[in-house]
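quick one: 2-acetamido-2-deoxy-beta-D-glucopyranose bound model?
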Amino acid sequence: MTKRTPPQTLSKRHFFRLGWKLMVLVAVGLCVIGLLKLQSELAAPPARGSRRIRADAFVGSPKVAFLFLARRDLPLDFLWQAFFENADVANFSIYIHSEPGFVFDESTTRSAFFYNRQLRNSIKVGWGESSMIGAERLLLDAALDDPANRRFVLLSDSCVPLYNFSYIYNYLMASPRSFVDSFLDKKEGRYNPKMSYAIRKKKWRKGSQWITLIRRHAEVVADDDVIFPAFKKFCQ
Ligand SMILES: *[C@@H]1O[C@H](CO)[C@@H](O)[C@H](O)[C@H]1NC(C)=O
Ligand SMILES: *[C@@H]1O[C@H](CO)[C@@H](O)[C@H](O)[C@H]1NC(C)=O
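yep, here:
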């Protein structure tokens, strides 16, 4: 996993945060945990599933998958509408995890780009709980089913784009890296030693959950069956 400053286009500095700030604070580090496993995974890739074979064989226009983790609706949908309007529909896809049963249609959103883009298998999410990672994994899992998706951008319902589509698309596609926030917080005491069989203390990091992953890393997070179960058990 390469550590790097997030791109200007998607860094948290450049996003307005109208809500969820508290949640971000509570949930910091949650997502990064799934990534801690990357290094060992990459050294010894698991058996290739059919999804991976299809992705490897894919030729065509690569897409950026925009993955929205929303509480209910997307209040800033009008800004995203303007953003996606200028994009080539072959270059992106949209997935939304929202409250179970919530439907995106003309009565709940001003942007047709979001119609029926919500996951059918969404779960009830609690602030700062592992269900948050569960929801992110569902989003990644759904997006991985489309072999055209090559970059996976996790967004909250209060994120807005500050650059146009082509700028962000070209920036992400030009980079072979994932963008994650990860740092060692010496003051924090959230590490539970009971998790040490799966997550070693010296691998414990803090970071924002709003990340952008390349496909290989999205697979690691979605397919992980070691880190997430440990987190679920000890970080409720
Ligand atoms: C997108 O933004 C970039 C950088 O701000 C600018 O150079 C470019 O002309 C814009 N493209 C379109 C299609 O508006
Ligand atoms: C769509 O993707 C193609 C390459 O796959 C690129 O040439 C084109 O500029 C992209 N369109 C936009 C609006 O970014």
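The longest helix spans residues 130-144.
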